[in-house]
C-alpha cells in the first residue's frame, strides 16, 4: 500500500495590527521601567539593611566594649543574600541590554538614562525665587484691585459690576486651590508620604514640590493683575473692563495646552490626561489618581455650575446677568455641569465594586449618589440636604481618613499617625469638616448677604475643606501601602499571564 507523506505545517502567524503592536510595545516599556524601579528599590533595601546591621553592632560595641561586629557580620550577615549585589546587578545589566535592543535601537547609554531613577534637578533655588517673586508682585495688585472695586464711582462706571465680580470669583476658586495643592505637596514630602508612588508619577519627569509652585504662582499673579486692570479701568477708553478675564483665560489655555517642551510639559500632559480619564470612568480600571481627581472636582462644583454663567453674560451682556443665574430658565444646564464630578465618582465606585466585589465601594458610591440628589434639590429648593451632608461627612471619617477609632491611643483618631507633631490638627480637621459640610444652612436666612456672595463664601470654604481633606486622605493611602508592602505599581501587560503559563505547559509536553 502506498504510504501518504504529509509535509510539516509551519506555525500560523497571526495578522498583527501595527497600531495594536505599538500599544503593546508602550505597555511593555512601562512594565520594564517599573520592573527596573523595583530592582533599584530592592537594592536600596539591601543597602539599608546592611547599614542598619553595622550601626546596631557599632552601638552594641560602644556600650558593651565587646568587639562583635566583624565576627557577627562574617558569620550571620555575609552568608546571606543581603551581603552581595551580584544577582541584582546581573538582573539590572540584563534589563539594560534588553531595553537597549527593544526600545533605543541598541543605544545602551540612552537606555541607561531612561532606566535610571533620578530626577532632573538637584537644586530649586531659581524655582523658589520665581514663585516668591510672582506672589509678591500679586499682593499690591490684589489690594489695589479690591480697593478700587468697592469705590462708588467704579460701580457707576462699570456696566454689570456685580456680574464682573462674580466672574472673577468663579476664576479665583480653582486658581487659589491650585496654589494650596502645593502646600499639600510640601507637607507630604516632609512627612515622607510617597505621593509620587500613590499618584503613579514618573520620577524621571515629575516636578518637585518647589517647582510645582511656579505655575500656580503665575496664574495667581496674572489673575490679580487682570482684576486690578478691570476695576482700576486702566485703558478703559480702548479696552473694556470685562475684556481682562477673557485675556487671562486665554493666557491660561495657552500655557496649559502649549505643545512645546516648556512650562513642565510632562506634568501638564499628565494633568490633562488624568482629567480626560474622568470622562471614560466605568470603561477602565479605577486607580487612586482617578477617584482623587474626581473628589477634587466635587469640591469645585461652584465653579462648574457657574461655567455656564461666564459665556452667558458675555453673550447676553453684563447688564442682563440676572438671566444667567440659577433661577434662569437655563438652570438644567448648570445642574448637569455641577453634578458631573459626582456622577463620575458614582460610576467609579460602581466600577470598583464590580472589579473587587467589596461592598465598601457601593457605600462610598452612595455618598455621591446622595450628593446628586441633594444638588438637584439645591437647584429646586435650597432647604434640602441634611441627610446627604451627614452621610457624606461620615464617609470622610470612616472610609477616606479611617478615623473615629474609640480605643486608639489618641481617642477618635487611628492607631497609626504620620503627622505626630500636630496631633491637635487632627481634631481641628474633624470639627471643621463637619462645620463646612453643614454650611448649606447659610442659604436659609432671607436677610443678609446676597445669594451670589453666600455661594462664593461657601465655595471658598468647601475648597479649603478639600485642601484639608487631602492631607489625611494621602496619609491614609500611604499607611495602607505600607501595610500591604506595596512599593511598585501594577502595570497592565499586553498579554495574559494565564496564556503564558499555558504555552509553557504545552512546550514541556512537546
Number of strands: 0
Radius of gyration: 29 Å
Overall helicity: 55-70%
Strand content: under 5%
The main pleated sheet reads as:
none
SSE succession:
HHHHHHHHHHHHHHHHHHHHH
Can you tell me the residue ranges where pLDDT is under 50 for at least 5 consecutive residues? Answer: 1-13
Q: Can you count the helices? A: 21
Q: How many domains, as an integer?
A: 3
Structural class: mainly alpha
Summarize this structure as a short list of keywords or feature phrases:
SPX_dom, single chain, transmembrane helix, membrane, inositol hexakisphosphate binding, transmembrane, 67% helix
Q: Overview of this structure, please?
A:
It is a multi-pass membrane protein. Keywords: Membrane, Transmembrane, Transmembrane helix. With 510 residues, the protein is mostly helical. It has 3 domains: 97 residues; 258 residues, no CATH class; 86 residues. Helix 17 runs antiparallel to helix 18.
Amino acid at each position: 500500500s502506498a504510504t501518504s507523506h504529509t509535509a510539516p505545517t509551519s506555525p500560523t502567524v497571526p495578522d498583527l495590527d501595527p497600531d495594536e503592536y505599538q500599544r503593546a510595545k508602550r505597555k511593555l516599556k512601562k512594565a520594564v521601567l517599573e520592573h527596573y524601579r523595583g530592582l533599584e528599590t530592592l537594592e536600596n533595601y539591601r543597602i539599608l539593611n546592611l547599614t542598619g546591621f553595622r550601626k546596631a553592632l557599632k552601638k552594641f560595641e560602644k556600650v558593651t566594649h565587646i568587639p562583635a561586629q566583624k565576627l557577627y557580620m562574617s558569620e550571620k550577615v555575609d552568608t546571606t543574600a543581603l551581603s552581595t549585589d551580584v544577582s541584582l546587578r546581573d538582573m539590572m545589566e540584563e534589563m539594560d541590554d534588553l531595553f537597549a535592543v527593544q526600545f533605543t535601537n541598541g543605544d545602551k547609554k540612552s537606555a541607561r538614562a531612561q532606566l535610571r531613577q533620578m530626577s532632573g534637578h538637584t537644586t530649586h533655588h531659581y524655582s523658589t525665587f520665581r514663585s516668591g517673586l510672582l506672589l509678591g508682585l500679586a499682593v499690591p495688585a490684589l489690594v489695589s484691585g479690591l480697593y478700587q472695586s468697592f469705590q462708588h464711582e467704579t460701580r457707576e462706571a462699570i456696566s454689570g459690576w456685580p456680574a464682573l465680580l462674580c466672574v472673577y470669583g468663579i476664576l479665583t476658586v480653582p486658581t487659589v486651590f491650585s496654589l494650596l495643592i502645593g502646600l499639600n505637596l510640601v507637607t507630604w514630602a516632609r512627612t515622607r508620604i510617597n505621593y509620587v508612588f500613590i499618584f503613579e508619577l514618573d520620577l524621571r519627569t515629575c516636578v518637585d514640590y518647589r517647582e510645582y509652585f511656579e505655575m500656580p504662582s503665575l496664574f495667581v499673579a496674572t489673575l490679580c493683575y487682570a482684576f486690578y486692570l478691570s476695576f482700576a479701568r486702566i485703558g478703559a477708553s480702548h479696552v473694556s473692563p470685562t475684556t481682562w478675564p477673557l485675556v487671562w483665560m486665554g493666557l491660561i489655555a495657552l500655557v496649559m495646552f502649549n505643545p512645546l517642551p516648556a512650562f513642565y510639559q510632562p506634568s501638564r500632559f499628565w494633568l490633562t490626561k488624568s482629567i480626560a480619564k474622568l470622562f471614560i470612568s466605568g470603561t477602565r480600571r479605577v486607580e487612586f489618581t482617578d477617584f482623587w481627581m474626581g473628589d477634587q472636582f466635587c469640591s469645585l462644583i461652584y465653579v462648574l455650575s457657574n461655567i455656564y454663567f461666564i459665556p452667558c453674560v458675555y453673550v447676553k451682556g453684563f447688564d442682563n446677568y440676572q438671566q444667567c443665574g440659577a433661577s434662569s430658565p437655563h438652570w438644567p444646564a448648570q445642574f448637569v455641569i455641577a453634578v458631573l464630578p459626582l456622577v463620575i465618582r458614582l460610576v467609579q465606585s460602581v466600577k470598583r465594586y464590580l472589579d473587587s466585589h467589596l461592598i465598601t465601594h457601593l457605600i462610598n458610591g452612595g455618598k455621591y449618589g446622595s450628593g446628586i440628589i441633594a444638588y438637584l434639590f439645591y437647584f429646586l429648593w435650597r432647604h434640602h440636604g441634611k441627610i446627604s451632608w451627614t452621610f457624606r461627612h461620615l464617609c470622610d471619617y470612616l472610609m477616606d481618613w479611617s478615623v473615629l477609632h474609640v480605643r486608639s491611643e489618641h481617642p477618635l483618631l487611628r492607631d497609626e499617625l504620620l503627622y505626630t507633631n500636630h496631633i491637635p490638627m487632627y481634631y481641628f480637621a474633624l470639627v471643621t469638616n463637619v462645620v463646612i459640610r453643614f454650611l448649606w444652612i447659610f442659604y436659609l436666612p432671607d436677610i443678609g448677604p446676597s445669594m451670589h456672595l453666600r455661594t462664593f463664601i461657601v465655595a471658598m470654604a468647601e475648597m479649603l475643606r478639600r485642601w484639608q481633606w487631602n492631607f489625611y486622605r494621602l496619609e491614609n493611602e500611604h499607611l495602607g501601602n505600607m501595610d500591604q508592602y506595596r512599593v511598585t505599581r501594577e502595570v497592565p501587560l499586553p498579554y495574559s499571564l494565564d496564556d503564558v503559563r499555558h504555552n509553557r505547559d504545552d512546550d514541556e509536553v512537546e
